[in-house]
Each structure stands twice: as structure tokens, then as C-alpha cells.
């Protein structure tokens, strides 16, 4: 309560704005994920690794717009590309050369030959699932229990439930995440546990016997929304083999991992190539953008006109100019070296604090992504996450950090995302806040 009061005392203008905002904006925010209790922090501006709220409080931004600002705020290369493009016209709904260059760059990085663009992660997973359904002529799909893949109906299923009431690992329940999702849609999405090949194979065979073979399995190769959960050795290879054997399109949702965990996302990091990938968030340095990539065979259903992959703003020139500048000029081999180095420093520092204060948790990460998970045991799937995760410590850590100039996603199930602008000082500020919390709690 002390840390909460301390923060709220610094957020007077945000509070005033919130009171006005609530009159005509539901809950005073543009999206429910921007809520914070008792009121949201309204932002003013950002520069590099830092941002300022409307009360003038300065933070190192470790949330980075839910992982989208890998290039840092107001990156000069992105600003130049977007300004140049805007001066020449910002929207035509016609192809332009940046689309071609970005598709070539993504092919090089992810090893998949055919691409299309859209505007967000949700659009990417929606398009990918439709393509998989068209390619296989099947209706049912599979996802990992607890994973988030965006806000369209097919994937707003089995995300955050009471783990005592989700069924056994062979028969996890399909449960709507919030109201407004038709029952018929819920029944078409079948969740399976992460890191469990046996359960996956069991469920696939059962679906086949019932006459409902799955069109696709959509999954993150490394889970990113229940702390960070890496695949166990052999798991992804097993998933690849099983899906191939059963004619199921394997979609790696790289909306969070693509470009952040390494130049070729989780696909290249873990060395398993899916049939499709979905990318968004950090693709265009803070402009709305999304991409789907796939094999020639699967993407043929788009090329021959069977599937309409469309959108007024798909391949919007501003987003594509930003994506091109980002891929060509910002996310260079040197930038990835820098991100790896900073992340290692941060994780090592967290591990040292955890060891020194004998804290229940561990640090891990890849590329620009990392997190401290407050759990006495390693998280391997949704159930172990919900059983192990310490919500009170998550909240306390968030408050300690916010009060000491470090901004993370409220709730802290989100990991940190570094940007190319994060430096030693940013990491030291983070570590000092974390150590103060560990010290105070164990004193
Ligand atoms: N897929 C994953 C793995 C995500 O984490 C998210 C968003 O957090 C999405 C898809 C949806 O992306 P967007 O919010 O851009 O629609």
C-alpha cells in the first residue's frame, strides 16, 4: 500500500485526465489492456529508451508498448522514413516498392518464401488461420492453453482460467475468454498443453477419430505471456514431425518473438521451420503493421484467389517505409549484439540479486526479451504458471519499479522488451529498483 500511495501521489494530472476521459471513453482508455488500478498513467512523450507521463515523471521504458518499440522511441531512421513517405502521400491502397523489399528481408530472416501484410498481430493470426483452413479444407484448429494470439473470436479461447477447472491434460476445455464469442466458434478451437507431445498426439488422434481433424496448430515457439516459457529439448521438433504427419499446418505466432528474440525470430533461434509465421508489434517501429509468411504450398490458396487476404490499410506506405528502415538500418547485426549484451547484463544482475536475497524466482530471456518469474519452480506450461506465479510479488515489483523510474507492463506477466537505445544506465536503474524491493522484503 505504501508503494501504491507513493505512486498515486505522483499521478495527479493522470487522475484529472482519467476523470474527464471516463465521460466519453470507456474506462478512460482506448483498449482494456491499458487499464491500471486505480487509474491509468497517461503518457506524454518518449525518446530512445525513456518516456515521460503527463505529470512529468520520467521512466526507462521496459514495456516498450507491449514489445513493439524495439527500435526505441522516436528512432531517427524511422522518423526520417515516415516523414519522407508522408510528404509523398501516406495511403493509396496500391503496392509500393517498400512492400517488396520488406517481403525480401523477411524471407531472408525467417526462411519462408511468400508474404502478405496487414495491420496488427490479431489480423495476422486471423489471416493465417483462415489460410490454414482453406489449405486443409478443415474447420477445427488447435492452440496452446493459456496462450494469447490476439482479439478475434477463434483465438480468444482458453487463455486465463482457474486451473482447477480446465480439465485434464488430454482433454483441456475450450473456454471463451470474455463474453460475445459464439459457442460454435469456441467449439472449433481445441486447446492443448505446452511442452506435452503425448497430449498433443492423443488429442490429434481423437479429433481425427471424431471426424474433426485440425487445420492448424497455432502456437508461440517460446511462450511469452505467462512469463517466458521456452520449449523443452525436442518438443518443437516433435511438434513439427507430428503436424507434418497429420497434415496440420503449423503456425508459429511470432507477433512477440519475431525480430525481438533474434533477427529471424523464434523460428531461427530454435531451428524449427513452421508452415507459416505471423509477425507484428516490432515490425514497423511503432506503426501499426502485421505480416504473414508461409510456404509456397500453403500460400498458394492466397495466390490462386481461393482466400481473400485483404484490407484497406494492408501494406500502408507509412508502416512499410518504417518496416523497411527498421529492417535495413536499425535491426542490424550490431544492434542484435547490443541487445544480447544488455539483456545478458540485466539477467545476470537479476540472478545475482535473487541469489543474494534468496528470493523465490528466476530470470531468463532471449534477445531483447527477458523477465524475472516469481515462482519457486520452473514454469513449463499454463498449470505450472498459475500454480507457481506469485501475483502479489508481481504487483509489488511493478510498483517498486514505477516509483523508481522503470516502466513495465502493469501486472508483470509481460516480460521486458529492451530497445536498441537501452544502455547500461537503463539496466542499472532497473536492477537498483529490483534490489531495493528484494532488500526491503527480506529485511
Ligand atoms: N499474438 C501474440 C503472441 C501476442 O502477444 C499478441 C498481442 O499481444 C497478438 C498476437 C495480437 O497482436 P495485436 O495486439 O497487435 O493485435
Automatic annotation (TrEMBL):
InterPro entries on file: Aminotrans_3, PyrdxlP-dep_Trfase, PyrdxlP-dep_Trfase_major, PyrdxlP-dep_Trfase_small
One Pfam family recorded for the sequence: Aminotran_3
Taxonomy, superkingdom: Bacteria
Name of the molecule in the record: Aspartate aminotransferase family protein
An MF annotation (GO) of this entry: transaminase activity
Keyword terms: Aminotransferase, Pyridoxal phosphate, Transferase
Organism: Bifidobacterium myosotis
Keyword Transferase belongs to the record: yes
Membership in a protein family: Belongs to the class-III pyridoxal-phosphate-dependent aminotransferase family.
Cofactor dependency: pyridoxal 5'-phosphate
Keyword set includes Transferase: yes
